[in-house]
Amino acid sequence: MKIIIAPDSFKGSCSSIQAAGAIEKGILEVFPEASVIKLPMADGGEGTVEALVAGLGGTLFRAPVTGPMGGTVEAAYGLLPDGTAVLEMSAASGLTLVPPHQRNPLTSTTYGTGELIREVLNKGCRSIIIGIGGSATNDGGAGMAQALGYSLTDSSGGELKPGGGQLGALQRIDSSNADKRLQNTEIKIACDVTNPLYGENGASAVYGPQKGATPAMVSLLDSNLRHFSTVIKRDLGRDVASIPGAGAAGGLGAGLMAFCGASLSSGIDTVLDALNFDGILEGADLVITGEGRADAQSAQGKVASGIGRRLLSRSAPPIPALLIAGSIGPGAEMVLEQGMTCLTSITDKPMSLEEAMRNVLTLLEKTSERAMRMLKAGMIIKSHLG
What is the DSSP string of 54-98? Predict the structure, then answer.
């Protein structure tokens, strides 16, 4: 029996690698001879570097870069065997790097993300995958652009200060000193949202509040991103504002496309393609995935729906798929229409969220074991029916 284990991380509890290991233990309790392939997953957000480095035998590095509120942070990135670099903007400019009381999208910057790109360019990488989930910023990638040699100046010719609050003063973008290596570098953006740059569904309105923006700040930030896109179109000749995903990571999606010529694609599809998921599926009898919470969002570009779509697109005999979730919320059943065969929660008794998170690995192992015993019972019933 060939079983593929391909979970996302259980945010705040365990990594995708740890989750896969716990699920494997449960499988082997029931089917000790099973051939198990572990493929830690991510959808472009936290865990993307770890998943691809683990799945492809890459190497993890760290580099000091500018954090979202200034200062220095150690950002992890990966180099894959084929020379591709894998980055997460959240490692340099992420929301988790900023204590709640210090969050301020008027001043937070993506400068460190630009430094991280420059770091891998210095290592000779000309192929980059960058996950852009979990940002603390709303600067449209302006800080990143400045770190890569672009000059963004105001009416007096002075360089713009950090943050989305400064973009309204932008008068000119000068690309004459931009890093020339970008012209020969392929950058793929792994993104799981489709928001435009500005407007009621844009970066500021939808994601600004979680980054510390008040209603007045949201209005200012949205207006500034609109102005930013106008200057980008005039000075760089690139109209990126309305492209789905341009508003991801506080507009970094738009910035990467405008300043780096990056292409934007589904985060989970980028990871699945990089790991050759379709090829590994050949001969599989079961796929098990997992995530911290299964709800309506699980069917909107998350790991479970991405895997489910791959399963549904196969012309070969169907492969059953199980989603193991930390909890099940409204709309979770939508994944059953997208390739998942069944879903279950890890909780085996009434318990608090804190207890479930504290014991997640044990609960995952036991849930996996129970699922395998049910599968074994089904196999016995099938054999009796002939």
Answer: HHHT-EEEEEEEE-BTBSEEEEEEEE-TTS-EEEEHHHHHBGGGS
